[in-house]
Amino acid sequence: MKPSFDNIFMNLATDLAKRSHCVKAQVGAVLVRDTRIISIGYNGPPAHTHNCDEEWPATGCPRDSKGSCSLALHAEENAILYAVKNGARLEGATLYTTLSPCLPCARLIFSAGITHVYFDKSYAEYKGLASDEGVDFLNHFGVKAEKFIG
Q1: Per-residue pLDDT tens digits for 104-145
Q2: Signal peptide location in the record (predicted)?
């Protein structure tokens, strides 16, 4: 039996996460429209800056006041920024990501015109938060965000 495109894209996001240099969490993302890949991304500092696992292998990069990485772009940000940099149209696109979007990424996803988000694991559970604020935001404003069931 052939795998569904949804399974293919989520598997690709999972494989992309392995490219991350983050020592805390590895996240991958795939942007798709009409079963065609628009862009890919994984979390990490901007290209040609740092590789956290090489510079700070024991602790990871410096943390900001909220305990988050002070250097990295999230996988969703990297996928969206690369797509925009290369002139891709994101309206109506679907995003597959291994970790549900945080609230800042959710705002970016909404603003980019992405209409559907599939995620594998919960950002709230990972961060110990009460709810998935990013997922709640997206669903509230008409972007269908849902846990991926393969």
Answers
A1: 999 999 999 999 999 999 988 988 889 999 999 999 999 999
A2: none
CB 44 within 8 A of CB 78: yes
Which string of DSSP letters, residue by residue, matches 26-70? --EEEEEETTEEEEEEE-BSPTTS--HHHHSTTT-SPB-TTSSBS
**Average pLDDT, whole number, for the chain?**
92
Q: Which of 54, 55, 76, 125 is catalytic?
A: 76
Q: The pTM is what?
A: 0.92
How far is 119 from 137, CA to CA, in rounded Å?
Answer: 14
CA-to-CA dists, residue 51 to 26, 57, 127, 132, angstroms: 13, 9, 22, 28
